[in-house]
Amino acid sequence: MARHIAIVEDEAAIRHNYEAALRRYGYQVSGYSDRHSALTALQRRLPDLVIIDVGLGDDVEGGFELCRELRSLSRSLPIIFLTARDSDLDVISGLRLGADDYLTKDISLQHLIARVVALFRRVEALSGEASGEKVLERGPLQFSVERMEVSWKKTPVPLTVTEFWLIHSLIRHPGHVRTRQQLMDDANVLVDDQTITSHIKRIRRKFVKVDAEFDRLDTVYGAGYRWKPE
């Protein structure tokens, strides 16, 4: 069965262009022009991936709010922002809300398709590893690929697909510095260094929310990141 992608974009011509491109690659596509209609439909049945514009007509922050609402429904649903808004603040806001990727509308359709394919590969890789890998334990950390669950001191830590893979890369090599490029390769994502940094900061905040003394995710300035061993 073809994977189902939802596109939330208020400009009809742009939305139809993206829909046509994705259908040419074999995807089933549903389009929505505003947050309310999208949320109403997606609450009934979640798609396999969602592409969202930030500004939706008069609802200038509608995409951000929709991302927050969708993330509350599913922490593993792949979400991509595709928008004309390219300020650092907007990018950071989108990633903090749980988006897996943040793209601007000046990218080519081929580039967009490549990012969609990369996200689906990560989801497929999770399913593949689940059949052969048991729960990984690193001190108080428990990491289950099969259930896509992470807990710290027996308290669940909700992670997005991208965050899950980044942690997976780090804990498989405790004590070893992983460069941003290595993390991108392991997470099967093509983003800039700033985006990786934003993801790491978000992951760290999630662990600190569970344990104020959490300090295992270490930044090695000029080199990358590492998971500190016991």
Cα Rg: 18 Å
- Might you state the CATH topology name of the largest domain? Rossmann fold
Helical content stands at 40-55%
- Structural class from helices and strands? alpha/beta
Number of domains: 2
Shape: globular
Second CATH tier, the architecture of the largest domain: 3-Layer(aba) Sandwich
The secondary-structure element order is EHEHEHEHEHEEEEHHHEE
CATH class of the largest domain: Alpha Beta
Report strand %.
15-25%
Structure report:
- With about 230 residues, this protein is an alpha/beta fold.
- Helix content is about 45%, strand content about 20%.
- The chain has helices spanning about 10-25, 35-45, 60-75, 90-95, 110-130, 160-170, 180-185, 195-210; strands at about 5-10, 30, 50, 80-85, 100-105, 135-140, 140-145, 150, 155, 215-220, 225.
- Helix 2 (about 35-45) runs parallel beside helix 3 and helix 6 crosses helix 8.
- The protein has 2 domains: about 5-125, Response regulator (Rossmann fold), CATH 3.40.50.2300; about 135-225, Arc Repressor Mutant, subunit A.
In brief, what are we looking at here?
The mean pLDDT is 88.
Any key phrases for this structure?
five-stranded parallel sheet; Arc Repressor Mutant, subunit A; Rossmann fold; globular; 230 residues; 45% helix; 2 domains; 8 helices; single chain; alpha/beta; four-stranded antiparallel sheet
